[in-house]
């Protein structure tokens, strides 16, 4: 039995016979199922590319030849055969292997961004660089999924690749017919015709001017190697169309109609005490409320970028299939299409993970906000997500939102305020709205003790002294209340307020801030240009001399880890905030922000 342990790096692969390689594939599958079901992660995508990964590393000589992966979630087999099998059990653990390619881990990993549809653009750039630097002996190989191929950037890149007959790139299309769910649109329909029709009809790739090889059985190593060698020998841009099965070799994944085990949760640790009833997930609270509002709001339609279930739209889609649109992994199109829907008299809800909206900022700014289109953006996974690493944290949305004229932004603190904010957003007809909430459980509802011009007061100062105003943004309410209690122990009067709608900065919040000795803002998002910065600016514009402390995430790419650990590492805990506020009030040292006070995690962030 050829085991992983018997192969030392990709060079060892090329010495194996075909049967030995097939045995190795079985051993890799065993390791994937055993470890990923324990650690959590992307099991289905990796199972689907075991043979493809082996064939790629037997035909091409990485890292001289550069093998690039779109999204990177399917690279566990690649990691295993490029020297990281022994560490594979640390996958997605703090300080352990990243769940995506990592340049710090290996020379075989070139691109780390987990945002889809980018790989062909990297490849186009690399091919041009090799042409200009004379490094024409290095192959450029770009693996892209059928889902990622529905993203606009992929076609921008194909347009350029087709224009570079003297700049060879081997595009490996990993066609498993699915993103999470079956991939939607004309592109998968075309690929299906290529799979089933005789090769009389030209592929779209050939019509663009690229060579096309396939379709090839993506689980037949010999056939794959022959096709890849042929493609590499063409010396021009070529698409190798590989047919694979997501979840291959693990029956529960193969039979999973939802998403073929796209991403599995970690196996829960054995417990002695009964597990407490889980509090509702933010995603489910949103999804159930939107479905409930769908009857009362016939003008509401929902859009997703290939993530219907992950963003909570399943219930709405089940009840209103004609009012639900999956546009593929195409966030830019989703947003401008929503503007079109709004111009047509409807109220679109664009449900998206916060980090993925980054790429549709221009569309939000100039296709939606410029036209004051009543589009509601619902951002899940806002703030620190943690396990999926730097490009998955939703830590830029609050900063981007500050730049959009007329955009109203809500950051609910719990399930009750999420439901309320959604109802309020759907009632806005004269401009865009956005709601943002983190990954995971919405936790217990946090009641207000009073309201003030639409803002929720969560804590009044016992002594009515107006020493500190703690402005809680979204899900940081619990942290703020803990900080307030700690600060009050030092004899200071602390008010905690949750504006609920945090942009534009409410006038009532400025008014409230003017009357306090110090204002502190706490957000699960980037400090730079975030909600706190906007509040600080608004106070300054009102002529306030009140010092403002903003607590949030540093302007860094944060390594993967557990959400709570990352928040703590950057001072977003009651204890850290209290200490910094008390020191600022005591005048001991008001030049230091909490982000500098907090201990940095091992393997300091970039
Ligand atoms: C811009 C962007 N939007 C959404 C996602 C979330 N996402 C991760 S993998 C995936 C599906 C990818 O499908 P495909 O490219 O076919 O790869 P497969 O999982 O089938 O191997 C999606 C939508 C993302 N990573 N990037
Ligand atoms: C690879 C990718 O972008 C998604 O699959 C992401 O991993 C989603 O993660 P969660 O849905 O677990 O937050
Ligand atoms: Mg796919």
TrEMBL record:
Q: Which residues form a coiled coil?
A: none
**Cofactors demanded by this protein:** Mg(2+); thiamine diphosphate
Annotated Mg(2+) binding sites: 146, 176
Residues in domain Transketolase-like pyrimidine-binding?
280-445
The record's keywords, sorted A to Z, are: Isoprene biosynthesis, Magnesium, Metal-binding, Thiamine biosynthesis, Thiamine pyrophosphate, Transferase
**Single Gene Ontology MF annotation:** magnesium ion binding
Q: Sorted alphabetically, which Gene3D superfamilies does this protein's record hold?
A: 3.40.50.920, 3.40.50.970
Answer yes or no on keyword Cell membrane. Answer: no
A GO cellular component annotated for this chain's UniProt record is: cytosol
Claim: Transport is one of the keywords in the record? no
| GO terms classed as biological process | isopentenyl diphosphate biosynthetic process, methylerythritol 4-phosphate pathway; terpenoid biosynthetic process; thiamine biosynthetic process
Could you tell me the EC number(s) of this protein? Answer: 2.2.1.7
- Catalysed reactions, semicolon-separated: D-glyceraldehyde 3-phosphate + pyruvate + H(+) = 1-deoxy-D-xylulose 5-phosphate + CO2
Entry note: cofactor: Binds 1 Mg(2+) ion per subunit. Binds 1 thiamine pyrophosphate per subunit.
* Pathway(s) this gene product operates in, as recorded in its UniProt entry: Metabolic intermediate biosynthesis; 1-deoxy-D-xylulose 5-phosphate biosynthesis; 1-deoxy-D-xylulose 5-phosphate from D-glyceraldehyde 3-phosphate and pyruvate: step 1/1
Which PROSITE patterns does this one have?
TRANSKETOLASE_1 (PS00801), TRANSKETOLASE_2 (PS00802)
InterPro entries for this protein: Dxylulose-5-P_synthase, THDP-binding, Transketo_C/PFOR_II, Transketolase-like_Pyr-bd, Transketolase_BS, Transketolase_C, Transketolase_CS
What the entry lists under SUPFAM superfamilies is as follows: Thiamin diphosphate-binding fold (THDP-binding), TK C-terminal domain-like
Q: Which NCBIfam families match?
A: PRK05444.2-2
Stated family: Belongs to the transketolase family. DXPS subfamily.
Quaternary context:
Homodimer.
So what does this one do?
Answer: Catalyzes the acyloin condensation reaction between C atoms 2 and 3 of pyruvate and glyceraldehyde 3-phosphate to yield 1-deoxy-D-xylulose-5-phosphate (DXP).
This chain belongs to the protein called 1-deoxy-D-xylulose-5-phosphate synthase
Organism of origin is: Streptomyces laurentii
């Amino acid at each position: 039995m050829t085991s992983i342990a018997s192969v030392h790096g990709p060079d060892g692969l090329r010495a194996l016979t075909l049967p030995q390689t097939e045995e190795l594939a079985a051993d890799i599958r065993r390791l994937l199922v055993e470890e990923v079901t324990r650690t959590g992660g992307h099991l289905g995508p990796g199972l689907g590319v075991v043979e493809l990964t082996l064939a790629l590393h037997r035909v091409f000589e990485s890292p001289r030849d550069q093998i690039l992966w779109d999204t990177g979630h399917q690279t566990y087999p690649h990691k295993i055969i490029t020297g990281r099998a022994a560490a594979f059990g640390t996958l997605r653990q703090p300080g352990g292997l990243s769940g995506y390619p990592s340049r710090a881990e290996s020379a075989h990993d070139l691109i780390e961004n987990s945002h889809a549809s980018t790989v062909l653009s990297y490849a186009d750039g690399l091919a041009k660089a090799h042409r200009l630097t004379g490094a024409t002996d290095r192959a450029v190989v770009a693996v892209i999924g059928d889902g990622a191929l529905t993203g606009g950037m992929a076609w921008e890149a194909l347009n350029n690749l087709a224009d570079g007959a003297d700049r060879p790139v081997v595009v490996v299309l990993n066609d498993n017919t699915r993103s999470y769910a079956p991939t939607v649109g004309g592109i998968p329909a075309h690929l299906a015709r290529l799979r089933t029709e005789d090769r009389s009809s030209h592929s779209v790739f050939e019509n663009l001017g690229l060579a096309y090889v396939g379709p090839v059985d993506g689980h037949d190593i010999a056939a794959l190697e022959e096709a890849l060698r042929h493609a590499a020998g063409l010396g021009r841009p070529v698409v190798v169309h590989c047919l694979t099965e997501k979840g291959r070799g693990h029956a529960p994944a193969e039979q999973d109609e939802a998403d073929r085990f796209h991403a599995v949760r970690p196996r829960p640790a054995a417990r002695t005490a009964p597990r407490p009833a889980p509090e509702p997930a933010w995603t489910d609270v949103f999804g159930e409320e939107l479905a409930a509002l769908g009857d009362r709001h016939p003008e509401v339609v929902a859009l997703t970028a290939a993530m219907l279930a992950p963003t909570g739209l399943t219930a709405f889609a089940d009840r209103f299939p004609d009012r639900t649109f999956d546009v593929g992994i195409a966030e830019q199109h989703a947003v401008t299409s929503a503007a079109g829907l709004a111009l047509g008299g409807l109220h679109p809800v664009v449900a998206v993970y916060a980090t993925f909206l980054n790429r549709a900022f221009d569309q939000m700014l100039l296709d939606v906000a410029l036209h004051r289109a009543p589009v509601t953006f619902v951002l899940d996974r806002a703030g620190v997500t943690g396990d999926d690493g730097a490009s998955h944290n939703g830590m830029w949305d609050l900063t981007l939102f500050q730049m959009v004229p007329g955009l109203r932004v809500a950051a609910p603190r719990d399930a009750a305020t999420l439901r309320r904010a959604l109802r309020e957003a759907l009632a806005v007809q004269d401009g865009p709205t956005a709601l943002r909430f983190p990954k995971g459980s919405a936790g217990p509802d946090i009641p207000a003790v009073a309201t003030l011009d639409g803002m929720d007061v969560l804590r009044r100062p016992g002594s009515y002294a107006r020493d500190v105003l703690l402005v809680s943004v979204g899900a940081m309410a619990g942290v703020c209340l803990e900080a307030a209690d700690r600060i009050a122990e030092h004899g200071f009067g602390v008010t905690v307020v949750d504006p609920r709608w945090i942009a534009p900065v409410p006038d009532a919040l400025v008014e409230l801030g003017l009357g306090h000795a110090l204002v502190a803002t706490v957000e699960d998002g980037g400090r730079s240009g975030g909600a706190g910065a906007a509040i600080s600016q608004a106070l300054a514009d009102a002529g306030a001399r009140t010092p403002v402390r903003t607590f949030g995430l540093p302007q860094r790419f944060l390594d993967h880890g557990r959400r709570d650990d990352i928040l703590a590492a950057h001072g977003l805990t009651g204890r850290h905030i209290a200490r910094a506020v008390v020191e600022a009030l005591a005048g001991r040292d008001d030049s230091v922000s909490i982000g500098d006070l907090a201990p940095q995690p091992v393997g300091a962030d970039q």
